[in-house]
Automatic annotation (TrEMBL), chain A:
Pfam families: CO_deh_flav_C, FAD_binding_5
Protein name as catalogued: Xanthine dehydrogenase family protein subunit M
UniProt key word Aminoacyl-tRNA synthetase: no
SUPFAM superfamilies reported in the protein's UniProt record: CO dehydrogenase flavoprotein C-terminal domain-like, FAD-binding/transporter-associated domain-like
GO molecular function ontology, one term from the record: FAD binding
InterPro entries in alphabetical order: CO_DH_flav_C, CO_DH_flav_C_dom_sf, Diverse_Substr_Oxidored, FAD-bd_PCMH, FAD-bd_PCMH-like_sf, FAD-bd_PCMH_sub1, FAD-bd_PCMH_sub2, Mopterin_DH_FAD-bd
Keywords per UniProt: FAD, Flavoprotein, Oxidoreductase
Keyword Transcription: no
UniProtKB/TrEMBL annotation, chain B:
Classification via SMART domains: Ald_Xan_dh_C
GO molecular function term, any single one: oxidoreductase activity
One matching Pfam family: MoCoBD_2
Segments forming domain Aldehyde oxidase/xanthine dehydrogenase a/b hammerhead: 19-134
Keywords: Molybdenum, Oxidoreductase
Annotated protein name in UniProt: Molybdopterin-dependent oxidoreductase
SUPFAM superfamilies: CO dehydrogenase molybdoprotein N-domain-like (SSF54665), Molybdenum cofactor-binding domain (SSF56003)
InterPro entries: Ald_Oxase/Xan_DH_a/b, Ald_Oxase/Xan_DH_a/b_sf, Ald_Oxase/xanthine_DH-like, AldOxase/xan_DH_MoCoBD1, AldOxase/xan_DH_MoCoBD2, AldOxase/xan_DH_Mopterin-bd_sf
Native species: Nonomuraea phyllanthi
From TrEMBL, chain C:
Lineage: Bacteria, Bacillati, Actinomycetota, Actinomycetes, Streptosporangiales
Pfam families attached to this UniProt entry: Fer2, Fer2_2
Entry protein name: 2Fe-2S iron-sulfur cluster binding domain-containing protein
Single annotated GO MF: oxidoreductase activity
Keyword Lyase found: no
Amino acid sequence: MKPPPFAYRRASSLEEALRLAAEAGEDAKFIAGGQSLMPLLALRLSRPSHLVDINRLQELGGVHQENGALRVGALVRHATLERSPDLDGPWQALREAAALIGHYPIRLRGTFGGSLAHADPAAELPVVSTALQATFIARSASGEREIPVSEFFAGPLMTVLEPGELVVEARFPAPSPGTRSVFEEFSPRAGDFAFAAAAVVLAADDGGRVRNAHIALGGVAAIPVRAHEAEAALEGEVLTGSAAQEAARLAAAGCDPSGDAHASGAYRKELVATLVGRALSRLREER
Amino acid sequence: MTSGYIGVSVERDDLAFLDGTACYVADVDREGQLYARVVRSPVAHARILDIDVAEALAQPGVVAVITAADIPETRIPIRLPMAETPYTHLFLQPPLAREVVRYVGEPVAVVVASDPYLAEDAAELVDVDFDELDVVSDILSATTQGTPLVHAEAGTNIVATVPLGYGDVEAAFARADVVIRDRLRMHRHTAVPMETRGLLAEMDHGTGVLTLWGAAKVKHFTRSALSSMLGIERHRIRLVENHVGGGFGVRGEPYPEDFLVAFLALRLGRPIKWIEDRAEHFVATNHAREQEHDLEIAATADGRLLAFRDRAWCDQGAYVRSQGILPALLPALHLPGPYRWEAFSVETRGVLTNRTPVGTYRGPGMTEATFVRERMLDKLAAELRLDPAELRRRNLIRPGELPFSFEPAPITYESGDFPAGFEHLLDEVGYDDLCKQRQVRRASGEHVGIGFAAYTEIGAIGPFEEARIVPRSDGRFVVHVGVASLGQGVETVLGQIAAEKLGVPMDAVSIDHHDTEKLADGFGAFASRSTTLAGNAVALAAEDLRAKAAARLDVPAGEIRFVQGQVREPSGRTIPLAEVGEGRGRFDKPHPTFSFGAALSLVSIDRETGLVKVLRHAVLHDVGRAVNPELLRRQLAGAASQGIGAALLEELLYDEYGQPQSTIMADYRMPTVEELPDIEVIVEERPNTANPLGVKGGGESGMVGTPAAIANAVADALGVEGARVWRLPLTPDRVREMLRHH
Amino acid sequence: MPHVDQHLSGDWLEADESVRIRLVANDQELPVEAPPRCTLADALRDNGLKGTRLGCEQGSCGACTVLLDGRPVRSCLMLAVQAEGGRLETVEGLAAGGELHALQRAFHDHGALQCGFCTSGFLMLAAGLLREEPDAGRERIREVLSANLCRCTGGGPILQAVLAAQRELRGGRG
Ligand SMILES: Cc1cc2nc3c(=O)[nH]c(=O)nc-3n(C[C@H](O)[C@H](O)[C@H](O)COP(=O)(O)OP(=O)(O)OC[C@H]3O[C@@H](n4cnc5c(N)ncnc54)[C@H](O)[C@@H]3O)c2cc1C
Ligand code: FES
Ligand code: FES
């Protein structure tokens, strides 16, 4: 279980990283926290010709709130998000999701950009990014583009990123007033990838009537998915227990997870109802 | 004349583990060593058409590549005569597959290179052309008509049938008021010690001796197996044990790699190192436990057990390895358990499947048998509307009935007090109070359940152990034994026995179990036998030494003392210790000892997610006599933790093509501190009448009743749906499934 | 031999070309020579620091945990070249001046080890945690310890040991 051979280069600036990746060609890869790439290398499921190390790119490291919007740099470690007390209200789901990723040492190294680019269907950050409607800024030697989260994931461990293209930042639009978010997941053992996960973002008016709802699910499809019927059912309603229950039911009904050796499709579907239900009842109680 | 060490929790010297200086086999390096990498079959069953090693051989750093064509036709033998049959030789494993591969992970070739990275690179380039065959992927289909044969030459997938009987079963069933019958399945799982296996072999060209580091558990057997397989004399093979990162029954058996690494060291004349990686470990190291039972029990309306019938299919995997038919034999011996049956008939079968071979894992056979029997007893209790504790009370064999024998089945209980042990467990955990708590918690909407299990555990399997005590001129004593340390603290325990019996301080005694060179014979650390067999051998060796010393001074053995390198008698006469020679002891144990144990578990279930949480877990074991109570408690607690993992999380899954689904640790879920409660351990000491020290086995028993107790607790918590608990592990998905169909 | 910092001069470290990597472990320079693909764990072990164990080599068990700049990392999930410029601590450096660290003593006292294979990793994980969060509560400590696996003890005694060491390190307060 030793990594296959590759050439290595540590980039000292963003420009350099992009240039190096371009120069090294199709089979080059970036390495950030290494918490997903290193296991893949050990199992020889990934065989890059070159690794461009982006860990020293301080320009990718910040979490900024401006005019209600949020920007998270690609190199922000999970542990940094987990420990950002100002990520509350509309951003709470982000902090909660980060705290549920793997284990403490994993979170100290793993990065936001790495988690997005790795695109595990059960990973927390892609799900929460989906619910919070992030846009990702991707750069390569030939330029920059913005990729809405809804277009970013292409399948399990697949994204639309081109070789040499680096996620530099995730941007989250300013939420409407009264927006709150929570994250729920279920895994059979501490720190494992979730069997299913749900991020719920709700904006409610002063009377408690839901103005808009975003529900994203993980672990139930090849990529994170939105629970559109459940969202629609909540909008315009007061979040009562029965409204929550109905939304949870619709969220489950609207997805069709396939099973694997560890959890069947039917089970994952049940989990969706449970998790969405729990998320909504927390939003009800924590008002 | 004793120094009072036996029964005292003497602290273990564990400094080397704390400061990082402990030396496991991966930490041993020899000048000029090369690294071996095993090429393994990616398919479960296929004919090998061709193996092309040319490209691998041409890689940088590669020194050699071998296939079956390069090694002698030889197979790994079975260790214990009791585990052999006239047919088992048909199913033994060759070190490298010849013509046919029979499971994913079977060794096909070995690449040797100057560096482990390069060896792995080259191993990927060994090109094997397979013609795939149909696969036996499940124990039940192994014996159906028209099924593929794992070993075509043998004409059957049945390795062995173990029939056991006692009393008149038909008559007992005819008298029964209640008969219940069910299928119960224990799943494939295994030890997964934190250290993988590893070996390092070196030929000393001067002395002609081949040294092998990394052997454990059954060193002396591995040595004789290698001697016959390699065709070199036993005394030219030396096995050295290093620190060992957990054994639990799977480490230290002779495996294909033991032969291969030794063979390569001889062939290439250079030290060869092989460290199993974790993905290999999941397909190469013995699996355990998978079996299905069709069990029927008969009882009277007032809850008296009459008889049972059991037919079982026990997975052996694709080959019979060194543990022979133990996977089928040991469950049979443990099915009756501590209860007073009038009759039973058992037929367990060892069957072959195209999957990793099965060996023994902590509590082998007993854990499986206890699960199926205890689960059925709870079903019977439910049927009779009887408290499950009461059902057991009514049927446990009483002390007055001991020794109790199920002859002609080879099961005899020599000593103990089963009902008292069971009550002790209930008292200790406060069973009545726990039942009230359950009531209260249920009323508040929680789904909690209590479950228990009682069992007998085979321990101290013979045939014998030897010990040698060599006094040194500086007044110290070196004790040579043949058992291995597998992280159990056996050195400490044997040191206590030696010191007490010699009448010297513990720091005057050192235990040497590392080296086959120092002791002629020994059988190793399995079946909780170290303390009983080696312990008694050490005690006998100490007595022998005292007797020899006393004879020299012509006084009774009780009167001499060992002081400062001298033997002294009461009137003050002394002789130098070095003149006495050495003490030798051999303890024979033709019949195994059975000891009693029980477990109790309190669980809660999240009915929405199916997650089971163990709130309390207690294990009780009668160890006869606890030489070191604290070390024993730790072992019992550790074993129970593994049992909780087995009951709830761990499973080695395969798909219908015989492809393993759990080949990385992330897919084989061992419990972490978050999943485990504090384990409550109760040690009973009812001295064994069958050996001078009075000890019984102990190292495995925390495991034995644990899956059964948890399964029963989950069933209790589930209520009506609980009747559906028939197999393990009780993963959240499975728990939900049971709830869903109602 | 090329050096890891040669990117400054604009070159790649070629695959399987041995490079000189200056690691500093336990305040000592470790003159490592290894190709870029060499993991930090292997580099430490090949250069005398064998107390760092390998239980899985893919991030699941934690046996290889060391401290990098004071924080626990899994050394099988890093390349040796990546650790250059950082400050490494391994189990060999835990006992200062021959005196065992409070954690080491507590592990002994609480039976937190049997075979000892997981011990180095747990010690370093706990050392990193208690340094960064000296007042971590029981639940937090338990959560963090779930990062590593101990097959022999299950981990309960390890939790007890870490709590005891924490009490001692805080001078008995709290
Ligand atoms: C034991 C364990 C448990 C884990 N549990 C979880 C879990 O529960 N949930 C979870 O979500 N994750 C889990 N992870 C994975 C962890 O979250 C990773 O940190 C994350 O998935 C990848 O981030 P990284 O920075 O480590 O990326 P790396 O491993 O460095 O890279 C991953 C991939 O992303 C690419 N990449 C990295 N950064 C960028 C970028 N900025 N732009 C473009 N491509 C990039 C790399 O080329 C590579 O292909 C676990 C890992 C381990 C070892
Ligand atoms: S060896 Fe690094 S986590 Fe297991
Ligand atoms: S002490 Fe053996 S794995 Fe922890």
